[in-house]
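ARCHIVE CARD
Drawer: 12
Card no.: 0347
Subject: one protein chain, sequence and derived structure
Cross-reference: see card 0346
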Amino acid sequence: MDASGVPLLGDSCGFNLGVLAGLHGLDFCQEFAGQLARGTGADLVTVGELRVRESGRIRVLASSFDGLPLGDFEYELRGAPCRDVVLSGAPQVHSCRVPELYPDGGMFIEEGLRSYAGVALMDPGGAASGLVQAAWREDIGGGLAQQAVAVMQQFAPRLGAEIAGLRRLAALAALAAGPGSSCPRAAVRQIAQVLQGALRVRGAFVAECSAGSPDRGRVAACCIGGRLADAAEGRAVRYDGAGARLPNGWEAVHLPEGLQQAVPQPPQNRDRSLQFCFGYLLRDADGAVTGWLGLLHDRGIGVGALEPDLTALIAARCSQELRRCAARQQREQAAAAQLVRHKAESLGRLAGAIAHEYNNLLASMQGRAELALENLEAAHPAEQHLRAVEQGLRASAGLVRQLTGFARPASGPVPAPCDLNATVQEAMELVPLGCRKGKAVVLDLAEGVQAAHLDPEEVRELVLNLVLNAAEAIGPGAGTITVRTRRTCLDAAERRRLLKGRRMAAGDCLLLEVSDTGGGMGPDMLSRIFDPFFTTKPGGRGLGMAVVLGIVSRHQGGLSVESREGAGSVIRCYFPACAAAAAVQPPAAGRAAAVRRILVVDDEDTVRRAVAGLLQLRGCEVAQADGYDAALALLHAKGPFDGAVIDMSMPGRGGWETLAGLRAAQPGLTAVMMSGFAVSAAAAGFPDLGDVQVLDKPFTKEKLYKALFR
């Protein structure tokens, strides 16, 4: 007998304790179910676990039905006497009338079971984790029912321990087997499922920390009620361990905002919110926090359920998979960056080829248009048409400049000390009048020479693109574009805000700022404005801002963008500063005050004759050559010359080699290089010619005169 005087089943019915003592796991549960059925004459005996406590389903692990095992199956608690056992945690006995008491009892009604006895199985935290039950097709006496309950209670701790052990083994097996895929994301999702099932809570999630922010991150995987909650993935979460600390490394934390709305709420649980959340920090080998595990529940969780061994195992595996996720993300980012570089290189080669041919055509048309204008009588009807042609040529040249922004080689023109203010003013002269219509362009330039290490041609292109982009942002209406220059000190806070140039040295630098009163940009647009060919403007090409980024990068500068919808935009470019005196370029020694005899060298006859015509307008005597050999022959026959205008890209010996040959024959020859797609003297192998000015085709006669007659 036990302490209450009820005879134990083993004493009266031959319950074989010796056999049970040598069994474990499912074998123990099945043997117990069989012996209980035989000893009590029960038609049905089951030992089961709560599959997911809140979903109201029982998974039967062991059973005896009419003397035979039924195998592994599940059934709903709803409408059955076992539901009362689980909810109350107390034994339930019905010696008769089960069909009348539970008319929706499903299996009990179908099989004609009239009597019932059940006992809850508890986890270490005191919550129901399953139950053992017996049922009969006939009414039974109270003594037999009480005897069955007593045996169930006697073996309940052992049955609960065996079920917990099976759950741990299942979790271990699932973790050891892996996700069946090399994808670490799949492994993290599986871990969330294992964690939720092993600890029998409403939900579990895995979050990975944002770089440098151990208390902030995003949900990598979330499992609610045995199912993955895809809507929760990617949600921003925050680790706020303001609650009580629990054993085994867990602590009560605040439920992350937004996560509750992202997970499904079954109808029976809508009145019970996920108000309890527990967190467990994940750390790398150096102790840095890389993420955390989270448990979600609608009522308190017994600390005994947070088993230390299982938690440690899951945490270790989770940390490993998060590291794999991070490594994979880095590889994908590197591969994406490499793909972008390959695309940019391919685009660069294509743009260079197009620019060379197209700019030669534009240069010829530009020169001929200017010659025609010079020879027209005053108020001639054709003048307005030629002016329109000129504007079209300049717009075409701007498009080509944007394309060549991708194609400039890394070893392009070397920045030299120059005045940023002067460069900005030169750039503003290139802004088409049509873009300024209805818009005020304000120049707020710092006083004095603002010396910086710049390539003037590239920075002029940068300013032009920024102003044109600002005009497009304002749209057809009125607005204000402000261009500012300042000498400033780049501090740590500003460096952190840079999109490009975060490694730029702190200290003195020059700031070029272009702001507008347009509609501004939202976060999605801000993240893409520097992508080539991305544009929101009808008919836009999406090249301007990509060119800006490339120019800033080549200058080892910094770039930041400040914008929000409805409040306009501010783009700031930072450049290395230098001493003001260094920006003043003294005239070359021995340079003639007046240049009259000029040699023009270009393999394109139309370009050569157009340039010669512009120089003849200035009163120059011009000789023309179509390449290296002809140029040297003319120099020996008709030289010396006061200056030379040479095309950079010619068949055979190019412009830089031609100039080197001419200077070998006539030292100190003043020269201007012109190109449809420039390559620096240093990159071409002639570093001693780095002082020669390069004119990008097409160019106006004013630019030609300024370069040659300075």
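Annotation on reverse: The chain has a mean pLDDT of 78. The CA atoms of residues 500 and 559 lie 5 Å apart.
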